[in-house]
Amino acid sequence: MFGYVIVNKPELRFREFDCYQSWYCGLCRALKERYGVSGQLTLSYDMTFLILLLTGLYESETAVGKDRCIAHPFAPRMNRRSAFTDYAADMNILLSWYKRADDWQDEHSPASRVSMAFLRGKRDAVSAKYLQKVGRIGALMEKIGCYEKAGEPNPDLASGCFGEIMAEIFACRQDEWEDCLRRMGFFLGKFIYLMDAWEDMDRDAQTGNYNVLLMKKREMADGEAFAAYADGVLRMMMAECSRAFETLPILENIEILRNILYSGVWCRYEAARRKKEKKKDA
Known about the structure:
Helix content: over 70%
Radius of gyration: 19 Å
Number of helices: 12
Shape: globular
């Protein structure tokens, strides 16, 4: 679920990347303040996108500071935070717990089990704060689990559930922008789920874990046709997400947001595609 919604660093100006990094550092500090070091260890770049998006849309006031941390002890690093940083930290904890639970179910990894134990109390704190939202997300995660256990072959069903989860996370308020944010989150969530499945196909072929795209590849029985299908589906998801994004009246950090949506989300895809091709040619 994590590691796809990132910037394409070479395509950003230095000052834009420094700005992006400062929001990431702000999220890191929020996780430590709210959930301690174990919460801080869940840090990923994905929620930085959500902070930038919501801060720009609602024109939230930005607090700027400089602090040292364990990762950067010698020179203070700039950090930026808004009213949405704490919200993103809460959602990051929630998604991290479900990620560990999913890893435990798939691989029975002891590390995932330990991480779940450390995060359980933090997840419960988030659940108490966002009772209805977390309830809906929990029900959708259970639905995904049912699809996976049943070996559901339709790519739209499980990915659609994860899309609904991201829609819940993006729609932080009930207002005029809710529908658009939900649409963005929905298609981004579908992209993340399918991208994760696409990247894990070789591993899941060996382990026997559920992978809806691996099932589709076997059904099509044509590697080139499947590659075109997967590429087309992923690009369609991001096209719909980006179309919704462009209707939002955002000016602040717009180039960073566009870099992520139009370029950054494809960085891991291209790296994994080249790796698959090299392995195939070897």
